[in-house]
Amino acid sequence: MKTYISILMLICFASFSNAQNDFDSQWEKVTELEKEGLTKSAAELVNTIYKTASEAKNKQQQIKALLHKSKYMLVLEEEAQLNIVNLFKSEIEATDNIVTKHLLENMLATMYWQYFQQNRYKFYNRTKTTEKVDNVDFRTWDLETLFQEIHFYYQQSLKNGLLLQQEALEKYSLLLHEAEDSKTYRPTLYDLLSHNALQFYKTSENSITQPAYKFIIDNSEFIADSEKFINLSFKSKDSTSLQLHALKIYQNLSKFHRNDATTKAFVTVDIERLKFVAQHATFNDKEEHLLKTLKGKAEALKNNPLSALYNFEIASLYRELGNRYNSNPNQGEID
């Protein structure tokens, strides 16, 4: 699968791209200090860069400095994880720029999600707390509370979708680690933030709550042609369902790119949605429904190179069904 763009999150700490414009020399000095092991000095210089960027209202440089500040906090401070989360919350509250706020909200949600992934055993062995108080250490929360917080910040980050859709990712290259040509798959900030959120909503982790009205993927129209899927109305009392919110994000991404249906951005989202539904669907004959949709899309794009992406999925499905049939000769076939 293609390697896409990702925001350089502070828990993982990939290498940052070279700085630009008036900040070049300062970032070069930061790099030198890091190589010399002078973390404290590097942190002090980053604080200076942060203040300069804030005064200049250079949001990209400001966020880059914020991420570096967080990295050094992990080295220099005992309570770094808690302090970093509080730092991001303060930044979110202080910023008056909507786009920057949503970007920081998405980062904060991803930090919480990464923390859970690194410490899942602690949460599954922890009893439910009576309530969440804002100033309580998030590391003491129970699983349901943490997931609610992750959900809250991802949902916040995707508000003002029309505004985010106008933000081309070229403007944010300073903050990105990207594969070649990856912007053809994630052309806008809206795409990037949505796919970050999907990493949480598509999780195979056990459901946090099990309501009697639990949402299930039991409608074959979820795996139908994109136009039919786009026009579906999702109604469920289960507002906590991760799968439900994943489908809503897929629907919004499909709507956004529907007028450019012959682009990689649309086709890859469409295929991801189909595979997600096929993985979690509870209705009968889901493979038949999936195959029908894939064949229809491949035929519609038969004169376009992008049809190969659908044809690849068709071939993969036939192979999977063939392997399944060989291990169980009594199983029915699909034409």
Task: Jot down its keywords.
335 residues, mainly alpha, two-stranded antiparallel sheet, 14 helices, 1% strand, globular
Mean pLDDT: 86
Coarse morphology: globular
Summarize the main sheet: 2 strands, antiparallel
Q: Estimate the strand proportion.
A: under 5%
Main sheet: strand order: 1-2
Number of helices: 14
Say what oligomer this is: single chain
Give the termini separation.
27 Å
- What is the helix fraction of residues, given as a range? 55-70%
Low-confidence stretches: 1-5, 8-20
Structural class: mainly alpha
The topology string of helices and strands comes to: EHHHHHHHHEHHHHHH
Number of strands: 2
Integer-rounded radius of gyration: 22 Å
Notes on the protein architecture:
There is one protein chain. With 335 residues, this protein is mostly helical. It is 59% helix and 1% strand.
SSE topology sketch:
Layout: E1 6-7, H1 24-35, H2 39-56, H3 59-76, H4 80-94, H5 98-118, H6 120-124, H7 143-157, H8 161-165, E2 176-177, H9 189-201, H10 226-230, H11 242-257, H12 264-280, H13 286-300, H14 307-327
Antiparallel strand pairs: 1-2
